[in-house]
Amino acid sequence: MERTSVGASTTVTTPLVCLTGVRKAFPLPDGPPLVAVNDVSLSIDAGTAIALTGPSGSGKSTLLHLIGAIERSDGGSIDVGGQEVTGLSGRALAAYRRRVGFVFQRFHLLPTLTALDNVMAPLIPFRTDFDKAARARELLAMVGLADRAAALPSRLSGGQQQRVAIARALINQPALLLADEPTGNLDSQTGTAIVDLLLRLRDEQGTTLVMATHDNGIAARCDRALQMRDGRLTSLDS
Ligand SMILES: Nc1ncnc2c1ncn2[C@@H]1O[C@H](COP(=O)(O)OP(=O)(O)OP(=O)(O)O)[C@@H](O)[C@H]1O
Ligand SMILES: [Mg+2]
């Protein structure tokens, strides 16, 4: 985290993510559109871990999709690292998506690829300024799966699959990692190990984490917990 001391008691942190008045509505077949994210403004400092909590349907996944430019907002501004994300298209959009890591509840590994090939999958084929397999192996080692590089996902436990998915999310060295209920399909012990791993990335690499979770214990381990309800942020704890 970049911190600049400007006085005895004041510390300035650099925001990595700045949302202003962000809105997303989904058209419904009958009736008015469903407003999934409603006028959300927030600022996330670089190198911090943020939990996004709130009941089912409150807009957590939609907000993560907007920040990761998986979905397009209907209004407002999303600034990530000084880049306006709304309105990106074509190659700029593809390049932005590659710079953000995304981890899903259901892992979303490609079933016919080995763990190693899954980790390498997001790399652009023609980029050859580093050894792709070596970097993927390093990441697998970092998540404790050095010896399972050749395994297909079907041969891995849920926790191991999620660790492969985290390694895949890190292959392009993202400053921002978005995780949508990354422990939602795991038992609590395995889930704790996954959160340990995510928080280690914050501590050791300064990765900024935004993690949707229903688990208050996980939220308490983050630097800040934000709560959503009916598409709005209802609490800012700091
Ligand atoms: N593609 C879509 N089309 C229509 N409505 C959608 C779509 N995606 C989400 N919604 C609606 O937007 C609202 C917010 O959904 P979202 O998935 O963001 O909630 P969530 O907080 O992630 O819930 P959960 O905790 O169950 O994952 C819900 O009412 C949902 O039904
Ligand atoms: Mg969700």
From TrEMBL:
Entry GO CC: membrane protein complex; plasma membrane
InterPro entries reported for this sequence: AAA+_ATPase (IPR003593), ABC_transporter-like_ATP-bd (IPR003439), ABC_transporter-like_CS (IPR017871), ABC_transpr_LolD-like (IPR015854), MacB-like_ATP-bd (IPR017911), P-loop_NTPase (IPR027417)
Nucleotide-binding keyword on record: yes
Record keywords: ATP-binding, Nucleotide-binding, Transport
Signal sequence, renumbered to the chain: none
Keyword Nucleotide-binding in annotation: yes
The protein's name in its UniProt record: ABC transporter, ATP-binding protein
Organism: Micromonospora lupini str. Lupac 08
Lineage, uppermost ranks: Bacteria, Bacillati, Actinomycetota, Actinomycetes, Micromonosporales
Gene field: lolD
